[in-house]
Amino acid sequence: MIADLGLILSVAAITSLVFKKIEQPLVLGYIIAGVLVGPHVSITPTVIDEASVSVWSNWA
């Protein structure tokens, strides 16, 4: 579960830095980060365990 959070935060940080560098909205970078760590893209490591995603989404 912590590894999933680390993956999500690191991909979000990288995409936000890239989108800030090319002067695009950061929200678009976060959307791209979500697509990259989602289970439908096999290029990068993905978050497949739905239970851990549910825990993080309901934590607040």
List the helices and strands and how they pair.
Layout: H1 2-21, H2 26-37, H3 50-58
Termini Cα gap: 16 Å
H-E order: HHH
Radius of gyration: 12 Å
Q: Using DSSP, what is the number of strands?
A: 0
Which secondary-structure class do the elements indicate?
A: mainly alpha
Number of helices: 3
Shape assignment = globular
Question: Helix fraction?
Answer: 55-70%
Low-confidence stretches: none
Proportion of residues in β-strands: under 5%
Provide mean pLDDT, rounded.
80
Q: Any idea how many domains? A: 1
Largest sheet: none
Task: Give the structure's gist in a few sentences.
Helix content is 68%, strand content 0%. It has 3 helices and no strands.
Task: Describe this entry's structure for a reader.
By secondary structure, the protein is mainly alpha-helical. The chain has one domain. 68% of the residues lie in helices and 0% in strands. The chain has three helices and no strands. It is globular, with a radius of gyration of 12 Å.
Index terms:
single chain, 60 residues, mainly alpha, 3 helices, 68% helix
